[in-house]
Design goal:
The chain is an alpha/beta fold. It has 22 helices and 15 strands.
């Protein structure tokens, strides 16, 4: 490894030396793991439709690993493939490391290959053999660069037929899919297909996403969430300290999380900003955009009355889709722009396009559209994805809030209800968090997930997701096993068709984390309760290096009660 250190940091060299801690149940490998089958399962929703789609994998039992003699264990040599799917998340390399070590523990002749560039690598049969020499450079490092990732969906009959040919041609015995909800939906579909076709192949999933929206009773957190939120919290904490020093700016910070506000909530706990918007609450209360702006400006005005013309606001990336009227506007725009594509293409100025399209949507939505800043209106009309839909993730929501807050404060100033200064600065923290060097928690968790996945594969448990639980305990005490992928399924209407999908986990407004947030946010709004967490710590006291997320701590505190 010495020859590889010339182009790496001192920290990376030290992280190569880190030895992840395995749960005790996994230490001696698959031969000493007894499988305990639980009750048969059902999907979280739409049971009849999900069962119709997954005729061969629906209703599988939960699996828990216990110490004991594995009577089904065999020393036969197997060839396993792994694929990284979707956006990057810290710890992906350690999943592969754990999978490799788990396979080699069972039989040194076992082979691990990695499909290159995500699911498209499967379809093109592009792969590399993962050896100890290859892997050693990547242990405990961030990124997915060992085999890269991709977002190709595998869903057509032709694609499934191609996978069948490739698996048979290459002699692959098992496929481990490392990904989020869409990627593991793919895994479930492939698992159903291989059983239907009577192929002796095993398909296993591993839960990954920094957004934190792939979670349930059996998946306490997805990997990468811990590291990413610590990275964002360092950045936000630095801003909090800066604003507390200069005392003259309002910082609006947009954070990753299009479908759920878990990142914003967790970073809120770690930094205690003046305002943290939780999309799920806004949706639950059916708030208008005007109401959201009013809530923000109320805090700004109250702080200005005590001479505090500064503060920090956290904004989830998917905020716009949580505001009912904005979601309705986006849907209406999708239809109007598609139906009038040729006419819109012949209108050149933004204002003319805006006027034209406002004549094609309902009056109340046209009024909302006209109230939006020109830049945001332009993004809503011009930035389309391949399916013709607005790319919501590209909308600079933090700038929308700033412009509308500025307008509202100007109105209040005219009414002599506001005399402060409003100097806003905007930020977006997204890609900064996806490939960081994994925290000790994520380094241990991902290694265990991979090792656990190897045990599932060796036992032929197809259609399962690697599950590690009891995560606020030391890693040695973590509980291991597998849950059926179909157990997490529901049905969504996509492009006019019913599609099976793994249900996204939103912030639970009745859960302990959100209740804790509500209990504290007024205090955060009024004062300077900022916390400055600093960078991730890899060395030193376990109280600092091995801490879990506040979200996990609050969720488990409820269980104890």
């Amino acid at each position: 490894m010495a020859q590889k250190t010339a182009n790496v940091s001192e920290l990376q060299v030290e992280r190569w030396k880190f030895k992840p801690i395995l749960p005790d149940i996994l230490k001696n490998g698959a031969a000493s793991i007894k499988l305990v089958k639980g009750k048969t399962t059902k999907s979280v929703a739409n049971q009849y439709k999900v069962k119709e789609i997954f005729k061969n994998t629906y209703g599988l039992p939960e699996i828990t690993f216990k110490k004991g003699v594995n009577t089904a264990f065999t020393k036969k040599t197997i060839k396993v493939a792994v694929v990284l799917s979707g956006g990057q998340a810290p710890g992906g390399h350690n999943v592969i490391a754990g999978l490799f070590d788990g396979l080699k523990k069972a039989n040194k002749k076992n082979v691990l290959i990695g499909y290159l560039g995500g699911p498209s690598g499967i379809l093109e049969n592009k792969f590399k053999v993962i050896s100890e020499d290859v892997l050693q450079e990547y242990r405990n490092t961030g990124g997915f660069d060992i085999i890269q990732s991709g977002r190709t969906k595998i869903e057509t009959p032709e694609q499934f037929e191609l996978i069948k040919k490739i698996f048979l041609l290459s002699g692959v015995d098992a496929l481990v899919v490392v990904g989020g909800d869409d990627s593991n939906t793919n895994a479930a579909m492939i698992a159903e297909y291989v059983i239907k076709e009577k192929l002796d192949k095993c398909i296993v999933g591993v839960p990954k996403t920094i957004d934190g929206d792939l979670k349930n009773k059996y998946v306490e957190t997805s990997f990468g969430f811990d590291t990413a939120t610590k990275i964002y919290s360092e950045l936000v904490g630095n801003i909090c300290r800066d604003v507390n020093s200069s005392r003259k700016y309002w910082h609006f910070v947009r954070l990753m999380g299009r479908s759920a506000s878990h990142i914003t909530l967790e970073v809120g706990f770690k930094t205690q900003p003046n305002i943290a918007l939780i999309g799920e609450e806004i949706l639950s209360k059916n708030m208008t955009l005007a109401k959201v702006i009013e809530n923000i400006t109320d805090v700004i005005v109250k702080r200005s009355q005590t001479g505090k013309n500064f503060g920090v606001v956290l904004v989830p990336e998917g905020l716009i889709e949580f505001i009912p009227e904005m979601k309705e506007l986006i849907s209406s725009l999708n239809d109007a722009l598609t139906e009038n594509a040729e006419a819109v293409a012949n209108v050149h100025s933004v204002e003319e396009k805006k006027d034209f399209i406002c004549g094609k949507i309902p009056n109340k939505l046209a009024d909302l559209m006209k109230s939006l800043p020109t830049g945001i209106a332009s993004q809503l009309m011009l930035d389309r994805d391949p399916h013709g839909n607005v790319q919501v993730s590209l909308i600079e929501t933090e700038k929308l809030l700033v412009e509308m807050a500025r307008k509202k404060l100007s109105e209040l100033r005219k009414e002599d209800k506001y005399k402060g200064k409003f100097s806003p600065i905007t930020h977006f923290f997204g890609y900064e968090g996806r490939c960081g060097i994994p925290s000790n928690f994520d380094a241990n968790y991902t290694y265990a997930l991979g090792y656990n996945a190897a045990a599932l594969v060796i036992n032929g448990l197809t259609g399962y997701l690697s599950s590690i639980r009891n995560l606020i305990k030391p890693p040695k005490q973590w509980e291991c096993g597998g849950i059926p992928l179909t157990m997490m399924m529901t049905i969504e209407r996509r492009y006019g068709k019913d599609k099976p999908v793994i249900q996204k986990a939103l912030v639970d407004l009745g859960g302990s984390p959100f209740k804790e947030f509500v209990k504290n946010r007024d205090k955060w709004a009024a004062g300077e309760s900022y916390i400055f967490p600093g960078p991730i710590q890899y060395f030193g006291s376990a109280n600092v290096t091995d801490i879990t997320t506040r979200t996990l701590q609050y969720e488990h505190s409820k269980k104890k009660k």
